[in-house]
Amino acid sequence: MDWDTLHFFDQQPDALPLYETLKACILEQMPDVRIKVQKSQISFYQKHLFACVSFLQVKKKRELPSCYIGVTVGLARRLDSPRVAAATEPYPGRWTHHIVVSDPAEIDAELMDWLKEAAAFSNQK
Questions:
Q1: What would the CATH number be for the domain defined by 3-123?
Q2: I need a labelling partner for 79 at 20 to 30 A (CA). Which of 35, 72, 86, 118 fits?
Q3: pLDDT digits (tens, 9 = 90+) for 61-96
């Protein structure tokens, strides 16, 4: 575990295992991913940025679990899923989706499929 990642989770240490599970799944299925830890997010890249983890408050605070990570993916389409906390279309043909993950079981095949789709979409640029 590097210092930057530990520092990122300094205020939310209980969320670190969620991130570690997500990171392991991403690297297992997409081994060529680069990870960049920044002040407000942890970004995942292949050719371009395709996903990030943050503590972005995409719901009212009372609607958020006490321990969570936000996973953001960019896709060419809008996801129709109750798992998506917020979706925006910043420009035509690009949808940004924010997904709240509060349990390791939520890092499942569906979420991984979205992450792989986001990677493929970003690599088309």
A1: 3.90.1150
A2: 35
A3: 788 899 999 999 999 999 999 999 999 999 999 999
